[in-house]
Amino acid sequence: MAPTYFDHNATTPISPRVREAMWSWLGVPANASSRHQFGRAASRALEQAREQVAAAVGAHPTQVIFTSGGTEADNLAIQGVCGGMEPSRLVVSAIEHPAVMRPAQALQRQGWQLASVEVESNGQVSRTRLKETLRKPTALVSVMLANNETGVLQPIPELAETARSHGALFHTDAVQALGRIKVDFAALGVHAMSISAHKIGGPQGCGALIVDKRLDLRPLLYGGGQEKGRRSGTENIAAIVGFGVACESLKTAPLMTEALRDVLEAGLRQRNAVIFGARAPRLPNTSFFAFPGIDGETLVMALDRAGYAVASGSACSSDSSDPSHVLLAMGVSPELAQGAVRVSLGPENTLQEVEGFLQALDSVLSNLRQMAAIAA
After folding, report:
1. Which of 249, 278, 301, 373 has the fewest CB atoms below 10 angstroms from its CB?
2. Is 299 helix (H, G, I), strand (E, B) or coil?
3. How crowded is residue 347: how many other Cβ atoms within 10 Å of its Cβ?
């Protein structure tokens, strides 16, 4: 039996439409800065993709800066905005992805004050907590739209309005949200927003930062002045074309509902799992849970042997054996957090696969508990 893929928050399978569109550009000497016919064709493809990405998030094409992925987009937002200012104060939420947290910490080493806004036990940043954090003058606030581990959604329009009222700029990492919920840059009211292709059936290694036209960004990369001087480097035309097609496909692809996840979580609750963030609005495809006394990494490996690909948290932090910083910020005990496992469903997953997973889980849990009893 073929293994079942339940790790769409890490990366999604590339769609056939995207693969076909990219194939036509692979091997073509396509430098969009060249003046000959090959370069002009590449430039047209680049701008068409820019229009497709912009349309998918309610932005104007001139607001789209192509990057090598969500990590670079986050770094460009954090370091690009702050790089043009005198060291001041920067606020990020306690549950941010390392692609936001680490550039913020790098700025702290350069003289910036870094403050963390805590989350409630349900995983959300409250407007009240943000207001308290913004009592001191702040240059930039960054809060993600959807958490990559718990799937918890943040009230970004409220938080962005609060930041604006205190004179702060606002960035949101929407990498995990695009393709799973409706994402509208203008409606969110933010100054900058990061997205990535490989979370929506596009290629890895391609993303974008969507920016307010008035936002002053200092480039991270200097060179030939591509992307209007905001991100130098020869554009990866095949990947960008794929990103555009993936965004175009979102217009006709129905958004996932919670139905399949609800079946999964009903089965998990019957097996006495603790489901994190369940009291907050969440992405419809994400379930983050733990079984007390069961190690998460061990459970992930056992499920993999049973034919189910799941995760113990963020794929970008998989080299760390520490408990999830997201769960610790929510007040979850380190012992329970150590057992956390994430299932993130995709549109191609079926009810039969979820039911098969729950059956496999019974066998896996029984074996792990027997082994723990023997070891004790």
Report:
1. 373
2. helix
3. 15
Based on the residue annotation, tell me whether 206 is a catalytic residue of this protein. Answer: no
Domain closes at, from 224, 249, 274 = 249
Residue after which a domain boundary falls, among 225, 249, 273: 249
Q: Determine the structural domain holding residue 228 and report its residue range.
A: 16-249
Identify residue 360 by its one-letter amino acid code.
Answer: A
Spatial contact of 64 and 50, defined as CB atoms under 8 Å apart: yes
Q: Two tokens at 49?
A: 């993709």
- pTM flag (> 0.85): yes
Based on the domain organization, do 27 and 175 belong to the same domain?
yes
Q: What is the pLDDT of residue 372?
A: 75
- Catalytic choice (82, 206, 247, 316): 316
**188 with 51, same domain?**
yes
Query: For the domain that residue 312 is a member of, what is the CATH number?
Result: 3.90.1150.10
Q: Is 321 a residue whose pLDDT tops 80?
A: no
State how far the Cα of 212 lies from the Cα of 106, in Å rounded to an integer: 24
What pLDDT is recorded for position 344?
A: 98
Phi and psi dihedrals of 133, rounded to 5?
-70, -30
